[in-house]
């Protein structure tokens, strides 16, 4: 019999796993530090720049598409409202918005420690991979501009 409340999990030590499995070292290398340390500074900047440009370009395109969809939806809703096809209960809308605000405030207060941990981990990652990160930021800005 298996009780879901008493599940047990095995902890896997990756350093010991890598020592026992030689294919792991062939695929990922022996360096256990940041991946960028394996490459020259120029290669890291190029890798970060290319991935940043791709991300910025996609962000720009998706942002334009989302703005067009939201704006078009509001425009169609306004036309339908003025034509008499749609009747909006503004008191109910206001009540629902206030209810949503209260729920968001409660959830934001609960999520604060998780967000702080994520920020700390992100900051540490950027510090360890500063060359790749700076290339990514530059590429991202170029991608947004193109």
From TrEMBL:
Pfam families: FUN14. Its main location: mitochondrion. It comes from the Eukaryota. Transmembrane segments: none annotated. GO terms for biological process: autophagy of mitochondrion. Keywords: Autophagy, Membrane, Mitochondrion, Mitochondrion outer membrane, Transmembrane, Transmembrane helix. It is a multi-pass membrane protein. GO terms for cellular component: mitochondrial outer membrane. It is found in: Mitochondrion outer membrane. Belongs to the FUN14 family. This is FUND1 protein. It comes from Bucco capensis. The gene is Fundc1_1.
């Amino acid at each position: 019999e298996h009780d879901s409340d008493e599940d047990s999990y095995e902890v896997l030590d990756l350093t010991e796993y890598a020592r026992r499995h030689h294919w792991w070292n062939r695929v990922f290398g022996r360096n256990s530090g940041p991946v960028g340390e394996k490459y020259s500074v120029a290669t890291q900047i190029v890798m970060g720049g290319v991935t940043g440009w791709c991300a910025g370009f996609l962000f720009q395109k998706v942002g334009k598409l989302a703005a067009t969809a939201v704006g078009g939806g509001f425009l169609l809703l306004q036309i339908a409202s003025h034509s008499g096809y749609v009747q909006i209960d503004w008191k109910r809308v206001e009540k629902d918005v206030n209810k949503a605000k209260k729920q968001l405030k409660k959830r934001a207060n609960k999520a604060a420690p998780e967000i702080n941990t994520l920020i700390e981990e992100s900051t540490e990652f950027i510090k360890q991979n500063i060359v790749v990160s700076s290339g990514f930021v530059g590429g991202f800005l170029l991608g947004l501009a193109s």
